[in-house]
Structures are given as C-alpha cells and as structure tokens.
Design a protein that fits this description.
Length: 258
C-alpha cells in the first residue's frame, strides 16, 4: 500500500498572534495543551497511526518548543501560511525528490483520527486529481460534535464547512502562488474567497444556486488544474480549535478517551 507525505501547518505570525493563544497566554496555538498533549502532537499522532502516511514534515514547531513529535522533519516557521505550506513541501521534496502528491493538515485539529486519514487518502487515491478540497455537511458536524459552533456556507446540496485536510500536487502550490496567498488570507471568510471567482459565481452564491460541481469548475479554472471537492462523513477533520468552547470540547472528548 502506497504512503504519501504529510505537511502539518503549525506556524504562527509574530505580528498577528492567534486570539485563542493570546487569551490563554500560550506562545502559539499549535502548542496549546489538550488532555496532556499539545494540539500538534495529537495531529502528528493521528497521521503516524494512519497506514497511508509516510514522511511527516511539521512547520513552525521544533524540538526547542518542548513538543515531542518523534521522527518528523522540523521546518522553521515562515512569515505566513502560504510560505509555511511551500516550505513544508520543499522540505519533503528535498528528502524524497520523487514526491508529487502531498497531504496538508492543519496543526489545530487535535480530534483528528487515524481512520479518518486512512479514509481520506483512500478516497483521494481512487480518483487522482491535482487538488482535493474537503467539505463537511452541517448535519454531520452537529451530529458528531453538537454545539461546535462552526460557520457554514449554503450550497445547492446543503450547508457546509471546510475541512482541514487537503490533497495537493506539489507543483500546483508553486504555480499558483498569488491565488493561493489570496485564498489563505481569506480562509476565514467564505464570501471573500468566492469574490475571487467573479460576478457570475458571486450571483449564484447569493441566490443559493451555487453547487459543489460549480465550485469544482471554478477551482479548476482559477488554478489551471483538476480541482475536486470531497464531502467527508468524518467531522473530526474539520474540527479545528479556534474558540474557547471548541477547546473545552476537545479537552473533554480526548480526556474521556485517555
């Protein structure tokens, strides 16, 4: 069974501290403690336990930060999320030059499970494309994590939030620097992202007529590559911890499972 490298984004902006980390007096969000481990440790643990992930690069957290991540590539923090993503991919390709496809994971999804990672890679592998984005339907999220307080986007097929695992061809990131920078800068505002697609897409969105297939076509056009969306039945891949009540929920769930 083939394995794929993963890049874990655990970086931070010294000029713009994360609100949750700031409220807790933590140096950065990925190092916030959840049931005896840091958030990023939980993410790395899930990736390592998966049968589909090989090399793991962690960007923004090193041995000097006191988080025992085991045998991973430590990549220094860069200025922003795009630069961290690119630095992680470059580090992976330096170690494994033949690398084409990379799984990118956020460092703030401590509830991520190995079986979710297995399912995700299996699903992506069945129909290989250049970029897979993940959506989670509101009813799935609320059933698995009631009261999680996520933000949702209305599409023809239902209301969805974004997931925090991506499958991407390394060259796509390099070849779309400006667009990816814009998307990442607007990642907390779905409408701001949709504005990049043009007036036709904006109108469809406002009229609640934008479908998943429409979004795939727009992504493919803007990024000049085959872009697809996976609707995940596993909400843990989208349960990033941004707010105090989400942190409390993660601590309660992982503490009970310990």
């Amino acid at each position: 069974m083939q394995t794929y490298p993963a890049v874990v984004l655990a970086g931070y902006s010294p000029r713009k501290p994360d609100p949750l980390a700031l409220a807790l007096g933590a140096e950065r969000k990925a190092l916030i403690e959840v049931a005896g481990k840091t958030m990023v440790q939980w993410v790395v643990q899930a990736l390592r336990a998966s049968g589909r992930i090989g090399l793991i690069a962690v960007v923004g957290v090193g041995p000097e930060d006191g988080a025992d991540l085991g045998d991973v590539l430590h990549v220094p923090n860069q200025e922003g999320q795009f630069d961290n993503t690119l630095a992680g991919i470059r580090a992976v390709q330096e170690r494994a030059p033949q690398t084409e496809m990379v799984v990118v994971a956020s460092g703030d999804i401590p509830l991520l499970r190995a079986e979710t990672v297995d399912w995700y890679v299996d699903t992506c592998e069945r129909r290989p494309v250049d970029f897979y984005y993940t959506l989670i339907e509101q009813k799935v999220m609320e059933k698995q994590y009631p009261g999680s307080g996520r933000s949702y986007v209305p599409l023809v097929e239902g209301r969805f939030c974004g997931g925090d695992l991506s499958w991407v061809r390394a060259a796509v990131v390099r070849n779309n620097e400006q667009l990816v920078r814009e998307l990442l800068a607007r990642r907390k505002n779905a409408f701001a992202q949709i504005r990049l697609a043009g007036y036709g897409t904006i109108l469809k969105f406002l009229l609640r007529r934008l479908s998943i297939r429409d979004a795939e076509r727009v992504g493919s056009r803007l990024m000049h590559c085959d872009t697809r969306i996976i609707v995940s039945p596993y909400a843990d891949m989208g349960m990033d911890v941004d707010k105090p009540h989400q942190l409390d929920m993660a601590r309660r769930i992982l503490g009970a499972a310990a």
